[in-house]
Amino acid sequence: xxxxxxxxxxxxxxGSLRLSCAASGRTFSSxxxxxxxxxxxxxxxxxxxxxxxxxxxxxTDSVKGRFTISRDNAKNTVYLQMDSLQPEDTAVYYCAAxxxxxxxxVRRSYDYWGQGTxxxxxx
Length: 123
What we know:
Elements: E1 3-6, E2 9-12, E3 17-23, E4 32-38, E5 45-50, E6 57-59, E7 67-72, E8 77-82, E9 91-98, E10 112-113, E11 117-122
Parallel strand pairs: 2-11
Antiparallel strand pairs: 1-3, 3-8, 4-5, 4-9, 5-6, 7-8, 9-10, 9-11
């Protein structure tokens, strides 16, 4: 599986962005998909994830109520809708695919990673 993330950019605090992650291959619906982010000088952290059929999502506490993950298995794409963005959301955002059964916040659970897209939120 190859993953291509896009949609990052510069936005003012309080604004919104929608990230997309397009996957190659015909087994996209077999993967749990996750979003992670990495700010300068910090560890890569779990943002949220979505299960195989899109019926369940999970988020880290800092983005609950602001970020929404969805997927379109027909288009082999997962999305991260980010609203009410804050400067502390500034990071490189990565999508990742996990051949497991449940959403995991652990980096090593994920088998494939996209290249990352930069999100910068100005105050």
